């Protein structure tokens, strides 16, 4: 019988140069501390490698660009490439330093998809979607020296309104847990992004975060109080800049009722960086 | 506003280097056939990321178009 052997969530622009440029020396040092915490989590994965690593993250309008934007999409197939961006700038520059190709856990991805459709989740599927920093920056910070376990990338639409609700993402996480429990595999799971930044995805509000909201979220996670998180609306997430909490909600559903341990929380003004690990039975 | 048209243009500007070069050289000509409101056309020709964003252009695209990125 399969089980989730590791579950964590973390911010996903894990790059000292990016925060050095936008938040100064304090930004650089803060993200370096976060990365050290993520790296410490990764050492546990290295010591006891899982059969698969599920990564729940959002596309930043790099892949699903207005021809169709799926609420939740499972990346199936045998391999996945990192996104290619000529003259990459901002958060896209992280990708230039990363390996180009990653193995997928084809069988687990297929089960998540097929059993998901059977269970009433109208999931999208992709054989071709590449991965941007939201997936690969955390994975390569956890495991900088490899090997990276076979991945099951899952895209959640966090930024193109209307998004799926937190409660729906949590329910999909419950589905993930069910699929994994019925499988023969030991699975690690991470969700990425956040915490609050870019409220309302509005240029005049770049530079703002919502520390009160973030601390409330972390408090609920640490206390194992999941219903208040499920009850959040997408409008609340938009207003606070907490869009990417939807990714975390999938992981939360997968591990509920587990409580989380705070690995890191740091305020930068432009964003609040964070990482948590769930305490699994 | 023409949410699809504006964001499809932004996406193409990010992903298509040749299109980006033609746009940079002569934005009015590149946009001539695009289905845009007058305000959208003006904001794109003037390349004002804040106005484009206020008109519905997505922030992440506006922050990451090589050579045209806003901060």
Characterise the protein shown here.
Chain A has 281 residues and is α/β, with parallel strands linked by helices. Chain A is built from eight helices and ten strands. Chain A has helices spanning 16-47, 106-118, 133-142, 166-182, 211-223, 227-230, 234-240, 245-255; strands at residues 3-10, 52-57, 72-75, 79-81, 101-103, 124-126, 151-156, 186-192, 260-267, 272-278. In chain A, strands 6-3-7-2-8-1-10-9 form an eight-stranded mixed sheet, with helices on both faces. A two-stranded antiparallel sheet of chain A has the order 4-5. The radius of gyration of chain A is 17 Å and the shape is globular. By secondary structure, chain B is an all-alpha fold. Chain B has six helices and no strands. Chain B is globular, with a radius of gyration of 11 Å. Classes of the chains: A alpha/beta (281), B mainly alpha (71). Chain A binds chain B through residues 22, 60-62, 65-66, 85-92, 159-160, 198, 201-204, 206, and chain B through 4, 7-8, 11, 14-15, 17, 49-50, 53-54, 58-67, 69-71.
